[in-house]
Design brief:
about 70 residues; alpha+beta; three-stranded antiparallel beta sheet; 2 helices
């Protein structure tokens, strides 16, 4: 399986790689609604683990239907 994020890396807000899933505001909305990827909150710092981002992306993967189109 190909990963979107480095498994062993920690990502913090402002890292350009996070733009793949959403901008700073979108990530904040998801954290507030508790619907985005898992994260750590250490005081005011938000940290995403690459493994958690990949797991979240895989859980949200959509496999298009291979059937005939009408």
């Amino acid at each position: 399986m190909a990963y979107l994020f480095e498994q062993d890396r920690n990502y913090v807000l402002g890292d350009p790689e996070l733009e793949i899933i959403g901008d700073h505001q979108k990530l904040a909305q998801w954290r507030h609604k508790r619907i985005g990827p898992a994260y750590y909150k250490l005081r005011r710092k938000i940290i995403y683990r690459g493994a958690d981002l990949n797991a979240w992306a895989e859980a949200n993967r959509v496999e298009p239907s291979r059937g005939e189109m009408n």
